[in-house]
Amino acid sequence: MQRGEPVALFTLVLYALALASERVPRVRAWRAWPIAREVHPVLVVTLAAHWLAHWFTAVSDIRPPRFFPCLLISAAFAIPTALVSRLRPRRIVAGVTIAVLAFLGLADALYFRFFGGILPLLGASNAKQAWEVASSIVALLVPRDALFVVTMASGIWFAASRPDASAAATGRPRRNAYIGALVVTGLAVVVLILDVQSWLAQRHSDKILSWRARLHQTGLFGGHARDIARLVRASAADRKVPPPEKVEAFARYLAANEAKVSDELFGIARGKNLIIVQIEALQQWVIDTRANGVEITPFLNRLRRERAYYFRGLWDQTMVSPTADAEYLSLNSLHPMPDSAVVFRFANNDFVALPKLMARSGYSTLSAHAYERGFWNRATIHPRYGFATSYFDREIGKDPKIGWGLGDKQFLLRALERVDRVRSPFMAFFITLTSHHPYNYLPPAEHHIDTSGLPEMLAGYVASMRYLDEAVAGFFAALSQRPFAKDTVVVLYGDHESRIALDRTAEEQARRTLSLDAQTVKDIARRSFATRKIPLFVVLPDAKEARTFDQVGGQIDISPTILHLFGMPKPRSMMGTPLVGDGGAVFRGEGSAVDGERFRLADGTCRTLRGAGLPVSECESLGKRGDEQLQTSWAITQYNLAERLAGERRAAR
Questions:
Q1: How many CB atoms lie within 10 A of CB 617?
Q2: Is-contact 379 394, C-beta < 8 A?
Q3: CB 331 within 8 A of CB 353
Q4: Span 249-645: which CATH code?
Q5: Are 616 and 606 in contact (CB under 8 A)?
Q6: Which of 87, 126, 411, 471 has the fewest Cβ atoms within 10 Å of its own Cβ atom?
Q7: How far is CA 123 from the centre of its chain?
């Protein structure tokens, strides 16, 4: 059994007993049953909410919520039922409430497995994106999710069924039962409100750094209440202009934390063209790895060995909006918001992004993605980033389709044809698509690597990475035929980790099939922080030899690195640093951090990258640095301060 399952199953038994009790003759023969029948729907809703909150934490491998606080908060969600005075309508309200809560529990469980958080009930834009990746989310269904569906069905049954025909309570007893249920649920609502107010008063309540820790405190539905209150407050705060002294404090922080950067490689690509390819779900562990003795990415491996600058200390820093977060990080050098997509919530910001900086230096700028222009709000956000032209499926085409849209092999070639039409120097930004979770889109004709022996999703991922490698090889071959190839720098990087988790059987299969050590396979199976590394390649047009860089960094450092190579100054609003020299650190929005060979988990635990424990004190300074950087970055986004702090305007608009 997983953590929390025994308690969850105990709450299920309580719910089932309450649900069935009215059908038991001995219960109906009880003298007080006519009165108990009046409050029975309220009790059933309370126990249903309690059970669902516990089952969500069990299937999500989260510590179970505290039993009695969760029970009391669950009672708050029975108040719509308690407000109805007549028994038949009360049962209908109760049944509908149970069905809705069960549906929400299932939606949250699936959303949590994919995005690492609970469904943002006030974040309609994020919810829409969740619908767009429905195939990926549905692929994460597990057999235990059936209990959510069973609970939904029980709610519908309760609403449709009629109460037993035993004598009903009348007069004062019935009125007292009604008032009693109303008082108890009303008190529960008061407790919930006080909990939300107390939490909002805490320092870090403006951001959810770890849903695992938060949901342990109040349970799933109490967590939703906190989240709704936080988003309402954040929405009001977004419209405020920070006081001048606060802006000055941010400016002082940025000035004080300007890293001393080596002059090494500065300006080595000055005046060159630039093509950036953001690759869907490419993780670092696939580089140089073999499946059944065959290289997964032979072309990328050759690039690494023969001509690329290869940065192997890069970490995935994305949060709840993975691909959009990767774009925001890599182009703006700022952290994504931990609870909502910047591209929706702050779409009207004045961004100081890489394409805008390149355009101001005389570059033509364009972006291309073979999917809908509205996905992650790209048709709106890319011009705000500084792209003069953007091409989507309408312009590039949808066929031959693989998975979501045009296959990457054709996409990269067609995107390159768009580059043919612009004047040099140019900056082009391509976003691939085919290697998308759940990695089951490739037709048999495109499976060019033996994945036998691997579990299904991991086999699909490995095959997708081989397809992607072939697409990149075809792209470089086509680029080499262009007259501008001799003056074009190509940057390749992965947008986020693969979101593949393996059970013990699948882990053993992977260990036998992949040329990885046992610890790495274990980390992949557990989606350990240690495997959330992504590769970054920089290929100069006249490179004669390869070079590997070990500096620790993240996607936030990609734009500063490109600006450094192109001999352009980094604006102060960009929080990353060029990935040259030594050292470095990377911080993630949920509180984890990496510095050299140690890393700090979101709960404050300190370990080596190989998992050995370290004293918490060894990571305290790292956690403090991360918190300062994250809070400053989030404020820059929230208050639209990038241009002001970059020195490009004197006052906030």
A1: 8
A2: no
A3: yes
A4: 3.40.720.10
A5: yes
A6: 87
A7: 14
Measured distance CA(336)–CA(214) in Å, rounded: 20
DSSP assignment letter at 273: E
pLDDT at 388: 97
For residue 262, the tally of other CB atoms under 10 A from its CB is 12
Q: What are 214-255's pLDDT values in tens digits?
A: 787 788 999 999 888 887 887 776 667 788 888 999 999 998
- For the chain, the straight-line distance linking the first and the last C-alpha, in angstroms and rounded, comes to 55
Instruction: Give, in degrees to the nearest 5, the angle at Cα 448 between 310 and 548.
Output: 10
- Cut 0.90: pTM above it: no
Separation of alpha carbons 458 and 438, rounded Å: 9
Strands 426-431 and 364-369: parallel
pLDDT at 238: 65
pLDDT for res 177:
78
pLDDT score of 650: 39
The predicted-structure confidence for 87-132, as pLDDT tens digits, reads as follows: 889 999 999 999 999 999 999 998 888 767 788 776 545 555 555 5
More confident site: 206 or 523:
523
| Long-range pairs, 23-31, Cβ under 8 A, ≥24 | 23/164, 28/164, 28/166
For residue 106, give the nearest of 161, 67, 143 by alpha carbon. 143
Domain boundaries, the chain: 5-237, 249-645
Measured between alpha carbons, how far is residue 624 from residues 5, 298, 600 in Å? 35, 41, 11
Residues 6+ apart with CB under 8 A from 153: none
Predicted local confidence at residue 79, as pLDDT: 95
In terms of C-beta density within 10 A (0-12 exposed, 13-18 middle, 19 or more buried), how is residue 50 classed?
buried
- The residue type found at 384 is R
List, in sequence order, the alpha helices (H) in 201-320.
211-238, 244-256, 298-306
**Interacting residues of 238 by C-beta distance below 8 A, sequence separation 6+:** 345, 346, 638
Ramachandran assignment for 4, one of left (phi > 0), alpha (psi -120 to 50 degrees), beta (any other): left
Taking the C-alpha atoms of residue 158 and residue 21, their distance in angstroms, rounded to an integer, is 12
Measure the CA–CA gap between 49 and 70, rounded to whole angstroms. Answer: 9
Amino acid 3: pLDDT: 61
pLDDT at 490 over 60: yes
Q: Is the C-alpha dihedral spanning 262, 264, 265, 267 positive or negative?
A: positive
Compute the Cα dihedral for 99, 104, 109, 114 and give only its sign. positive
Residue type at 122? L
Q: Are residues 430 and 415 in contact, defined by beta-carbon separation less than 8 angstroms? A: yes
Per residue, what are the HEC states of 517-574? CHHHHHHHHCCCHHHCECCEEEECCCCCCCEEECCCEEHHHHHHHHHHHCCCCCCCCC
Tell me which residue has tokens 């700028």. 365
According to DSSP, the residues that pair with 314 across neighbouring strands are: 553
Cα atoms in the Cβ-side hemisphere of radius 13 Å centred on 98: 32
pLDDT tens digits along 266-311: 999 999 999 999 999 999 999 999 999 999 999 999 999 999 999 9
User: Three-state DSSP class for 390?
Assistant: strand
> Which DSSP helix (H) or strand (E) runs through 598?
strand 598-600
Coarse DSSP helix, strand, coil percentages of the chain, rounded to the nearest 5 percent = 55, 10, 35
Which amino acid makes up residue 120? P
**Residue showing tokens 């500065």:** 266
Q: Is the pLDDT of residue 204 over 90?
A: no
Which residue stretches of 577-639 are H helix?
620-638
With 0-12 / 13-18 / 19 or more C-beta atoms within 10 angstroms meaning exposed / middle / buried, residue 527 is middle
